[in-house]
Amino acid sequence: MATDITLLWASGSHACWRVMIALEEKNLQGYNQKQLYFEKGEHKSKEVLEINPRGQLPAFKCGDLPLNESCAACFHLECKYKSQGTKLIPDCEEGRALILQRVFEVNALTEKSSSVLYYNWRVPEGERHDSAIKRNKEALTAELKLWEGYLQASSGFIVGKDFSMADVIVYPNVAYLFHYGLSEQRYPKLAEYYKGLMNRPSIKASWPPTWKNAPKQETLKDI
Amino acid sequence: MAKYMTLLWGSGSPPCWRVMIALEEKNLQGYNQKLLSLEKLEHKSKELLAINPRGQLPTFKHGDNVLSESYAVCFYLESQFKSQGTKLIPDGPAEQALMYQRMFEGLTFYEKLSKYYYSSEPQTLKRNKEALVTELRLWEGYLQKLGSGSYLAGPSFTLADVVVFPTVGTVFRFGLSPERYPKLGEYHNLLKERPSIRASWPPHWLESPKGLDTLKDI
């Protein structure tokens, strides 16, 4: 039941967003939730550490069971609430294989995006190199081209004709890239995918509140 | 069944090892397999790139399905072959939730090991070493809490062990001290005797039993 579920989250965190989309899709609105702020260091608060000793968000509990990894939470919710809401992992063999493949492939997209977006935050001043920055941008470009390719024949979803776990996991990553100024002209299929799902109820309901009135970011404009 | 499966793999690669353990646990021995040499860059060969544009191992084919993410293969095998071999996803909600949690934390564990192993600059090396030590201590704590003889999610062997053991096997191969990490050492000793793990033990580790010293002082 939704009232047994607790989520501590931050706006704009793609990992938190995935869990929120999954909760909406499984008709679990009404879960206990609290928005926290990284800037205030709230992800290291006692409240978070009690659920997630790593001091990271999302901090998520289903009953007494902590599930702090976004994919763990999403997979568990799909399993536990199989018979309600949207079916996120289908029973048929073919659809399932490709969905699983894309769900795990997104780690590469996350890593390559983070290498560009968070370079200065991750790498102390003395260790930064222009050559590394260039390399990271090239790696992200190559990665985005792969995803652009995956979406060539898309019906609006990452896999197949229905919204699935692949969309729950991947959509936040894609939205994040456009929020940071990724070019819609250079990546038309990704842009189509991004815009096509923007108004899906689960996505609209969980859209990061801090993005709504934020100024346009341009970090990824030239990728 | 197994004869319609093909696995392209590299010796000592934890992601490949995960898939091989899963195949053994699900009684799918007899799959077609080809060992590629990572040193000779065979994973970037035309043959592999044609099936997997990322040029990465493992690459697994079952009929028309091509999967190159080890976790995807493990989940896929468990759901396709639910009724044969070991039950890898437990029914009990607490055990299942813990399994999912540890599986995905396992990605962080592997990432921190890889980052340390591949870093070269002294300051980066120091930072990544500290991150790896923190991570190892977390896992030591998880095993401490569960008690001796336990698997990562509780009393049964699950997908969490399939995907995380290869990382544990690797840290000990790289010289991690079982005195400093007794619970991890115990877990390693328990699992290295398991048939699926013995059957898929990296061949070049058998050829040269003495491992590396990279993690000796961690």
From TrEMBL, chain A:
Pfam family, one: GST_C_3
Domain GST N-terminal: 3-85
Superkingdom per UniProt: Eukaryota
Residue stretches making up the GST C-terminal domain: 92-219
Recorded family membership: Belongs to the GST superfamily.
The protein's name: Glutathione S-transferase rho
Protein source organism: Oreochromis aureus (Israeli tilapia)
Gene: LOC116320480
Automatic annotation (TrEMBL), chain B:
Signal peptide start-end: none
Recorded GO CC terms: mitochondrion
CDD domains attached to this UniProt entry: GST_N_family
Pfam families: GST_C_3, GST_N_3
GO molecular-function terms, A-Z: glutathione transferase activity; maleylacetoacetate isomerase activity
Gene3D superfamilies: 1.20.1050.10, Glutaredoxin (3.40.30.10)
PANTHER family: MALEYLACETOACETATE ISOMERASE (PTHR42673)
Annotated protein name in UniProt: Glutathione S-transferase rho
